[in-house]
Amino acid sequence: MEIDGVFSGGGIKGFALIGAYEEIEQRGFRFKRVAGTSAGSIVAALVAAGYTSREIYEILDELDTSKLLDERKTFLPFPFAKWLLVYWRLGLYKGNELEKWLKNKLEMKGLRTFSDLPQDSLRVIASDLTNGRLVVLPDDLEKYGIPPRAFSIAKAIRMSCSMPYFFEPVKLKSIDGTSIVVDGGVLSNFPIWLFDKENTKKARPVLGIKLTHSETDHQKHKIGNAIQMFGALFETMKDAHDSRYISRKHAKNIIFVPTEGVLSTEFELTEEKKQALFALGKKCAKQFFGTWGY
Prior knowledge:
This protein has about 290 residues and is of the alpha/beta class. It has helices at about 15-25, 40-50, 55-60, 80-90, 95-105, 155-160, 225-250, 270-290; strands spanning about 1-5, 30-35, 90-95, 120-130, 135, 165, 170-175, 175-185, 205-210, 255. Strand 7 and strand 8 form a beta hairpin. Helix 1 packs antiparallel against helix 3, helix 1 crosses helix 8 (about 270-290) and helix 5 (about 95-105) crosses helix 6 (about 155-160). It starts with a strand and ends in a 5-residue tail after the last helix.
């Protein structure tokens, strides 16, 4: 049976998305269209490329994720240089290695630009800080004078994954100048609304996988200092808009995967943690299918 799917952001915790995807596959469902943000955009792109859940797990498992943290070389002592990179480059790591890795994995399936995919089969979310707006890729590239179908899929995913202050933002050059583009999670970490049109019957069931509790089960943030407040600020910014939308309309079609205890930026995950996240995603999906009525 064909369905549409949405994968939430969550950084390295995305291994749980793959576990849920395996259960979905084993139930006989196939994704016709997919969408995602940040880590979810990586999984969505690999699904759109035709990789199975086991293949996605294997290519992520064999990846030395620490190599994605491509620091810029500097003659300055690192502790001091680190803050200069954030100040001048707007991020600790370049993000080039992530894009190169994605480009290679997609090219192995014959994919380079969105023209290599069926129309609307893959859409991802990014945040344009220069113009203060959410960007749906590739659709919204027309606003920048860029042909959407000719745009690199790997570049779009990198844009969606450019976590503020962690990875350098992508500078998108257009007819109106240069826009600073960062992680889509800043504005929509779970874009299930992409498949919702008012007063229009859905062509297929829409299934979401979200790396968090449902809104009613969300744990309270502990705020005792400025660092904790920044963390709470970013988490609230990522989830509040989508949670309000979800609570009204879509909770019954979402696999919620609580992943407390693992940081989004914990790039050196142990094999045990990877397997545990995968198993958690699969377990939550299995429980979900016990009650899902499409």
